[in-house]
Write a structure and sequence with these properties.
ATP-binding, five-stranded parallel sheet, RNase adaptor protein RapZ, four-stranded parallel sheet, RapZ_C, 9 helices, GTP-binding, 9 strands, nucleotide-binding, alpha/beta, 2 domains, Rossmann fold
């Protein structure tokens, strides 16, 4: 029997994850007290309906009962039940925004600041996160992207890394992204802005891309950039990093940065990394 425990930060997407698991054939239960995990697993195993794919959501909504999680996992192991833990995470900034948009209160801080509740929750979930088999950082993921990742893991059986890579193009005149881990300046490359027939287009247009990529310095830079990123990624994964933001900047964020970001995105996508792309200033 395939037994999956979905947990993680409030607002990180556990409800959406459960819906996806239902869509791919899992019998799902939300907010099951961890103390009941062994009994529930036994019932599913003995079910005449032959339930062989089960997913349950267990999180801090269970209050003091959540403290029973590790004890219940030990019982499952002693009883011979194999399980996987899917942990959903996101940045504090994004989680706070989601709470405000839905006007929800954080379960650990119903009358206080959301950030205080998140801080307390991260501390309570610290050890569970370490034990997780799969971690998905939903900071920059759409519902569709989350669905794709879950399908890869539990339907297609692909081994996916816990790192989500965000490629971001931007214009320096609009400000450097505050959440960038790596920033690369491509303002040294020839600028299509000064070519009249290219000025109004963006790096998403084939004509602009061909112009930018036609120069020797561009080809050399892209080769070295890709080599560096592919060198760094395994070490970020080994370190346990789950969100890597790579920012590519030019003057306005419309031509060169968009082109280079697209090339890097395509390279990482081919290697089946979990990668997303955003052209922040492309339409400005």
């Amino acid at each position: 029997m395939e037994f999956v425990i979905i947990t993680g930060l409030s607002g990180a997407g556990k409800s959406q994850a459960m819906k996806v698991m239902e869509d791919i054939g899992f019998y799902c239960m939300d907010n099951l007290p961890p103390a009941l995990l062994p009994k529930f697993a036994d019932l599913c195993f003995q079910s005449k309906r032959s339930i062989n794919k089960v997913a349950i959501v267990a999180d801090i909504r269970g209050g003091k009962f959540f403290n029973d999680l590790f004890h219940s996992l030990e019982i499952l192991e002693k009883q011979g039940f194999k399980y996987r833990i899917l942990f959903l995470d996101a940045s504090d900034e994004v989680l706070i925004k989601r709470f405000k948009e839905t006007r929800r209160q954080h379960p650990l801080s119903p009358e206080g600041r959301i950030i205080d509740g998140l801080k307390s929750e991260r501390e309570k979930l610290k050890e569970v996160r370490k034990k997780a088999d799969n971690i998905i950082d939903t900071t920059n993921l759409t519902v569709g992207m989350l669905k794709e990742e879950i399908r890869k893991i539990f339907l297609e059986g692909k081994e996916t890394e816990n790192l989500t890579i965000s490629i971001l193009s931007f214009g320096f005149k609009h400000g450097i992204p505050l959440d960038a881990d790596l920033v690369f300046d491509v303002r040294f490359l020839p600028n299509p802005h000064y070519i009249e027939e290219l000025k109004e287009f963006t790096g998403n247009d084939k004509r602009v891309r061909n112009y930018v990529m036609n120069w020797d310095q561009t080809k050399q830079f892209v080769e070295k950039l890709i080599d560096l990123i592919n060198f760094l990624i395994p070490y970020y994964i080994k370190e346990g990093k789950t969100q890597l933001v790579i920012a590519i900047g030019c003057t306005g964020g419309k031509h060169r940065s968009v082109t280079i970001a697209n090339v890097l995105y395509e390279n990482l996508k081919e290697k089946e990394y979990r990668v997303i792309i955003d052209h922040r200033d492309c339409s400005k």
